[in-house]
Amino acid sequence: MEESATSTPLQGAVRDLTTAVVSALRSGDPARPYLRTGQGEAALAAVRVLGADALLPSVLLGTPPAPEDLVTYREALKAYPPPPGAAPASVWSHRAMARTLHRFDPGPPQLPEPAPEPGTEDLRAAPWQTLTHRLAVLAALAVPGADCPVTRVARGRPVDVARGFVRAVRRRDWPQAAGAGRWLTLLDGVPDTLGLEAGLRFVHQMADGEPRVTLHLEAARLLRTGTTA
User: Fold this and answer.
1) 21-25, 47-51, 106-110, 138-142: which has the minimum mean pLDDT?
2) According to the UniProt record, where is the region Disordered (predicted)?
Protein backbone atom coordinates (compact mmCIF):
# COMPACT_ATOMS: atom_id res chain seq x y z
CA MET A 1 0.00 0.00 0.00
CA GLU A 2 1.53 3.29 -1.06
CA GLU A 3 1.85 6.24 1.29
CA SER A 4 -0.45 9.07 0.29
CA ALA A 5 0.90 12.52 -0.40
CA THR A 6 -0.74 13.79 2.78
CA SER A 7 0.80 11.16 5.08
CA THR A 8 3.09 12.52 7.79
CA PRO A 9 6.54 11.08 8.51
CA LEU A 10 5.15 9.56 11.71
CA GLN A 11 2.28 7.87 9.87
CA GLY A 12 4.74 6.41 7.40
CA ALA A 13 7.03 5.25 10.19
CA VAL A 14 4.13 3.60 12.04
CA ARG A 15 3.05 1.82 8.87
CA ASP A 16 6.58 0.60 8.16
CA LEU A 17 7.12 -0.58 11.72
CA THR A 18 3.76 -2.35 11.84
CA THR A 19 4.63 -4.15 8.61
CA ALA A 20 7.96 -5.20 10.13
CA VAL A 21 6.22 -6.55 13.25
CA VAL A 22 3.79 -8.55 11.11
CA SER A 23 6.71 -9.95 9.12
CA ALA A 24 8.46 -11.00 12.34
CA LEU A 25 5.27 -12.69 13.56
CA ARG A 26 4.93 -14.63 10.34
CA SER A 27 8.60 -15.58 10.08
CA GLY A 28 8.75 -16.82 13.65
CA ASP A 29 12.14 -15.14 14.10
CA PRO A 30 11.85 -12.02 16.28
CA ALA A 31 15.50 -12.43 17.29
CA ARG A 32 16.48 -10.52 14.14
CA PRO A 33 16.36 -6.72 14.68
CA TYR A 34 13.35 -5.05 13.11
CA LEU A 35 12.35 -2.05 15.25
CA ARG A 36 14.61 0.49 13.55
CA THR A 37 12.70 0.70 10.28
CA GLY A 38 13.91 4.26 9.73
CA GLN A 39 15.98 7.06 11.18
CA GLY A 40 15.17 10.05 13.31
CA GLU A 41 12.49 10.92 15.81
CA ALA A 42 9.60 9.52 13.75
CA ALA A 43 11.08 6.02 13.85
CA LEU A 44 11.37 6.15 17.65
CA ALA A 45 7.93 7.70 18.05
CA ALA A 46 6.46 4.90 15.94
CA VAL A 47 7.60 2.40 18.58
CA ARG A 48 5.68 4.38 21.20
CA VAL A 49 2.59 4.46 18.97
CA LEU A 50 2.62 0.67 18.62
CA GLY A 51 3.25 0.36 22.34
CA ALA A 52 3.75 -3.14 23.68
CA ASP A 53 2.92 -4.54 20.24
CA ALA A 54 6.39 -3.44 19.14
CA LEU A 55 7.67 -6.57 20.94
CA LEU A 56 4.62 -8.72 20.18
CA PRO A 57 6.59 -11.35 18.19
CA SER A 58 8.73 -12.09 21.23
CA VAL A 59 5.70 -12.12 23.55
CA LEU A 60 3.73 -14.56 21.41
CA LEU A 61 6.57 -16.72 20.08
CA GLY A 62 8.64 -16.89 23.25
CA THR A 63 11.88 -15.80 21.61
CA PRO A 64 13.87 -13.01 23.29
CA PRO A 65 14.05 -9.84 21.21
CA ALA A 66 17.28 -8.74 19.61
CA PRO A 67 19.41 -6.63 21.98
CA GLU A 68 19.24 -3.74 19.52
CA ASP A 69 15.45 -3.86 19.62
CA LEU A 70 15.41 -3.81 23.41
CA VAL A 71 17.56 -0.66 23.33
CA THR A 72 15.22 1.02 20.84
CA TYR A 73 12.15 -0.04 22.80
CA ARG A 74 13.59 1.29 26.05
CA GLU A 75 14.49 4.59 24.37
CA ALA A 76 10.93 5.01 23.11
CA LEU A 77 9.48 4.18 26.52
CA LYS A 78 11.72 6.76 28.16
CA ALA A 79 11.29 9.45 25.50
CA TYR A 80 7.48 9.47 25.40
CA PRO A 81 5.94 9.14 28.86
CA PRO A 82 2.31 10.18 29.24
CA PRO A 83 2.14 13.93 29.93
CA PRO A 84 0.34 15.20 33.03
CA GLY A 85 -3.38 14.75 32.63
CA ALA A 86 -2.97 12.24 29.80
CA ALA A 87 -5.94 10.14 28.77
CA PRO A 88 -6.20 6.76 30.53
CA ALA A 89 -5.50 4.94 27.25
CA SER A 90 -2.10 6.64 27.01
CA VAL A 91 -1.21 5.68 30.58
CA TRP A 92 -2.38 2.08 30.20
CA SER A 93 -0.42 1.76 26.96
CA HIS A 94 2.75 3.13 28.54
CA ARG A 95 2.43 0.88 31.58
CA ALA A 96 1.93 -2.13 29.28
CA MET A 97 5.14 -1.19 27.48
CA ALA A 98 6.97 -1.08 30.82
CA ARG A 99 5.64 -4.51 31.82
CA THR A 100 6.75 -5.97 28.50
CA LEU A 101 10.22 -4.47 28.86
CA HIS A 102 10.52 -5.93 32.36
CA ARG A 103 9.53 -9.33 30.98
CA PHE A 104 12.60 -9.42 28.74
CA ASP A 105 14.92 -7.17 30.73
CA PRO A 106 14.11 -7.63 34.44
CA GLY A 107 17.06 -5.58 35.65
CA PRO A 108 16.78 -2.02 36.99
CA PRO A 109 14.66 -0.20 34.40
CA GLN A 110 16.42 3.19 34.72
CA LEU A 111 13.16 4.79 33.66
CA PRO A 112 10.97 7.45 35.24
CA GLU A 113 8.35 6.22 37.69
CA PRO A 114 5.28 5.20 35.67
CA ALA A 115 2.15 7.30 35.88
CA PRO A 116 -0.42 6.07 38.42
CA GLU A 117 -2.81 3.40 37.20
CA PRO A 118 -6.07 5.05 36.09
CA GLY A 119 -9.31 3.84 37.57
CA THR A 120 -11.59 1.67 35.47
CA GLU A 121 -14.95 2.86 36.76
CA ASP A 122 -15.79 4.63 33.49
CA LEU A 123 -14.67 1.64 31.45
CA ARG A 124 -16.74 -0.77 33.53
CA ALA A 125 -19.82 1.43 33.19
CA ALA A 126 -19.34 2.24 29.50
CA PRO A 127 -22.02 1.16 27.01
CA TRP A 128 -20.95 -1.82 24.94
CA GLN A 129 -20.31 0.37 21.89
CA THR A 130 -17.93 2.62 23.82
CA LEU A 131 -16.33 -0.33 25.57
CA THR A 132 -15.53 -2.01 22.26
CA HIS A 133 -14.06 1.18 20.82
CA ARG A 134 -11.81 1.71 23.83
CA LEU A 135 -10.70 -1.92 23.98
CA ALA A 136 -9.86 -1.86 20.27
CA VAL A 137 -7.63 1.16 20.87
CA LEU A 138 -5.94 -0.86 23.63
CA ALA A 139 -5.69 -4.12 21.68
CA ALA A 140 -1.94 -4.25 22.39
CA LEU A 141 -2.92 -5.25 25.94
CA ALA A 142 -4.66 -8.39 24.63
CA VAL A 143 -1.87 -10.91 25.15
CA PRO A 144 -1.77 -14.26 26.98
CA GLY A 145 -1.30 -14.05 30.71
CA ALA A 146 -1.83 -10.31 30.91
CA ASP A 147 -3.41 -9.19 34.17
CA CYS A 148 -4.14 -5.50 34.42
CA PRO A 149 -7.27 -3.45 35.12
CA VAL A 150 -8.21 -3.28 31.44
CA THR A 151 -7.97 -7.03 30.89
CA ARG A 152 -10.05 -7.66 34.00
CA VAL A 153 -12.79 -5.39 32.66
CA ALA A 154 -12.70 -7.17 29.29
CA ARG A 155 -12.96 -10.59 30.94
CA GLY A 156 -16.12 -9.49 32.68
CA ARG A 157 -17.89 -8.36 29.48
CA PRO A 158 -17.33 -10.92 26.70
CA VAL A 159 -20.87 -10.67 25.36
CA ASP A 160 -20.62 -6.89 25.08
CA VAL A 161 -17.30 -7.16 23.23
CA ALA A 162 -18.89 -9.72 20.90
CA ARG A 163 -21.75 -7.30 20.20
CA GLY A 164 -19.22 -4.59 19.49
CA PHE A 165 -17.33 -6.85 17.09
CA VAL A 166 -20.50 -7.53 15.09
CA ARG A 167 -21.33 -3.83 15.03
CA ALA A 168 -17.82 -2.93 13.82
CA VAL A 169 -18.02 -5.49 11.01
CA ARG A 170 -21.42 -4.20 9.92
CA ARG A 171 -20.09 -0.64 9.94
CA ARG A 172 -17.00 -1.77 8.01
CA ASP A 173 -14.80 -0.39 10.76
CA TRP A 174 -12.02 -2.88 10.15
CA PRO A 175 -9.51 -1.54 12.73
CA GLN A 176 -12.11 -1.74 15.49
CA ALA A 177 -13.31 -5.16 14.33
CA ALA A 178 -9.75 -6.52 14.27
CA GLY A 179 -8.93 -5.11 17.70
CA ALA A 180 -12.15 -6.44 19.22
CA GLY A 181 -11.61 -9.80 17.54
CA ARG A 182 -8.15 -10.03 19.05
CA TRP A 183 -9.62 -9.48 22.51
CA LEU A 184 -12.31 -12.08 21.88
CA THR A 185 -9.73 -14.78 21.16
CA LEU A 186 -8.59 -14.42 24.78
CA LEU A 187 -11.95 -14.14 26.54
CA ASP A 188 -14.02 -16.92 28.05
CA GLY A 189 -17.76 -16.80 27.64
CA VAL A 190 -17.84 -15.62 24.02
CA PRO A 191 -21.13 -16.82 22.47
CA ASP A 192 -20.67 -19.80 20.15
CA THR A 193 -23.15 -18.20 17.78
CA LEU A 194 -20.76 -15.31 17.11
CA GLY A 195 -18.78 -17.19 14.46
CA LEU A 196 -15.58 -15.41 15.42
CA GLU A 197 -13.25 -17.33 13.13
CA ALA A 198 -15.41 -16.71 10.08
CA GLY A 199 -15.81 -13.09 11.10
CA LEU A 200 -12.06 -12.58 11.35
CA ARG A 201 -11.56 -14.17 7.94
CA PHE A 202 -14.09 -11.72 6.52
CA VAL A 203 -12.29 -8.77 8.12
CA HIS A 204 -9.03 -10.02 6.62
CA GLN A 205 -10.57 -10.20 3.16
CA MET A 206 -12.14 -6.76 3.35
CA ALA A 207 -9.40 -4.75 5.09
CA ASP A 208 -7.13 -4.66 2.03
CA GLY A 209 -3.93 -5.33 3.93
CA GLU A 210 -4.07 -2.29 6.24
CA PRO A 211 -1.04 -2.92 8.49
CA ARG A 212 -2.61 -2.28 11.91
CA VAL A 213 -5.58 -4.48 11.01
CA THR A 214 -3.23 -7.19 9.75
CA LEU A 215 -1.23 -7.02 12.98
CA HIS A 216 -4.29 -7.65 15.16
CA LEU A 217 -5.54 -10.40 12.87
CA GLU A 218 -2.15 -12.11 12.88
CA ALA A 219 -2.07 -11.93 16.68
CA ALA A 220 -5.58 -13.38 16.81
CA ARG A 221 -4.57 -16.18 14.44
CA LEU A 222 -1.64 -17.19 16.64
CA LEU A 223 -3.82 -17.05 19.73
CA ARG A 224 -6.58 -19.13 18.12
CA THR A 225 -4.25 -21.81 16.78
CA GLY A 226 -2.44 -22.16 20.08
CA THR A 227 0.98 -21.57 18.52
CA THR A 228 1.98 -18.91 21.05
CA ALA A 229 4.63 -19.48 23.69
Assistant:
1) 106-110
2) 102-122
